[in-house]
Inverse folding.
DNA sequence: GTTGGAACTTAACATATGTTAGTGGCCGGA
DNA sequence: TCCGGCCACTAACATATGTTAAGTTCCAAC
């Protein structure tokens, strides 16, 4: 059976574990998705503090997890298609962050009672779902390291390298870059700096021939420089796909 | 049965879920611990990249999770007694960070095959273990927010407030502070700054009457100021215990 | 095409933080 | 007892980043 038979979870399968699952299990995973929604304008899908009874899987586009604090937004995670965005909501129930769409997105919703049933009856899938939340935490740790260690240009380089790699896992990376609908303000929110300073950094990386970010498109000019500047080692992503940046 | 019957997991039970478990389940949890070790000097217990077949629970003292990068150490998480330090190692197997002891610590080891058995047969405990790793991720997210949003004094204030709260959950917080064996260098490593600058910040917080950190002892001088400065809202800890700082 | 707003860009200045260098105190080992 | 090393602390200077205030480009709605 081809992956096209699983329109909602296709990217998830590409990213992690296509070969580890039987077709029956893939079908069960696909069956988690209850309904699908598309948002074309920026939209806050879930709010911090919400009590949730379903989790969301990103099918297409980009979403961010955001913590608002006195008027400023701080991006604590970015997601690519195939990611379970708030699977942790299944156990924690109350969200500690907002979930917002960036650009045009398509999202699937998985009711918690369906997840519950899978957990009880499908040990392989249960393990995989847990695994998926642990990978999330590993990325968080790398972001912490990035924020503690790197200055603004390094942070941007790291962000670009990570997104490129993660998009590559789900077959969405181009040969020399990828499409990224983030504004400079949003890049700044993800790197813990201001849009003015992010503008300086974007300009600098462009002029030094590292990476060009403009009009929603990332073009990597020198992947070695990019990796060095971002102190990027993809090991924490635990990926099984081809490691384009390695 | 009193909690003293569970010497290894007593703090874990105090922190989260004492009432949610039957005595039988508490016994099973306690039985996860295979052997116990004590380290009196600073010691690297596990290394990044290690393939692990057991997970560690902190019984007494402080441990840090550390990512080394060109000679510098970056603390990505700190743990208090009762924490499962690397439960994620059960699923991920390969560690993406070191685990190091700070001061004198006592640590229990839980072989993965025992955890596996619990997961297969004890849904309540399985859920609780998953929950525990998700809480870990929630703290990571808060650290990301803290690093993105706060300057060095705010970061230190946040760190102190968080540790005080978490120690309170496990009955280890004092009325006006707590014992903390971190050096200024280590505080700097956890706040993404240098020891020199951390020294400035420690001095400033002491002089402005927020908190006094000296000789391994944290004395909170003004908890309202501390919370404000650190933008600290304990909601993300999802705690059930008394919220001393609220 | 015009208009309005959002995104991008730049400049000048203030501040936080990093860097390098060095001091003195404390404590444990020889 | 002395010694050596780690830790706390300070100073002077360099740099990265934040802040405020503009101007410009781009694009979409009308």
């Amino acid at each position: 059976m081809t992956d096209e038979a699983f329109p909602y979870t296709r990217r998830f399968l590409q990213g992690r574990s296509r070969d580890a699952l039987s077709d029956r299990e893939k079908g069960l995973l696909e069956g988690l998705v209850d309904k699908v929604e598309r948002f074309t304008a920026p939209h806050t899908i879930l709010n911090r503090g919400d009590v949730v009874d379903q989790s969301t899987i990103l099918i297409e586009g980009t979403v961010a997890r955001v913590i608002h604090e006195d008027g400023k937004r701080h991006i604590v995670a970015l997601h690519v298609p195939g990611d379970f965005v708030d699977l942790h909501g299944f156990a924690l129930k109350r969200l500690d962050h907002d979930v917002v769409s960036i650009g045009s997105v398509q999202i699937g919703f998985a009711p918690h009672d369906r997840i519950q049933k899978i957990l009880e009856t499908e040990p392989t899938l249960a393990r995989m779902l847990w695994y998926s939340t642990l990978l999330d935490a590993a990325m968080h740790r790398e972001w912490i390291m990035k924020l503690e260690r790197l200055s603004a240009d390094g942070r941007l380089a790291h962000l670009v390298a990570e997104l490129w790699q993660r998009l590559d896992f789900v077959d969405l990376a181009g040969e020399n870059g990828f499409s990224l609908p983030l504004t400079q303000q949003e890049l700044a929110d993800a790197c813990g700096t201001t849009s003015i300073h992010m503008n300086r950094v974007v300009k600098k990386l462009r002029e030094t021939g590292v990476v060009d970010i403009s009009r929603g498109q990332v073009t990597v000019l020198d992947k070695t420089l990019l990796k060095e500047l971002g102190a990027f080692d993809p090991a924490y992503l635990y990926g099984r796909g081809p490691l384009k940046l390695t």
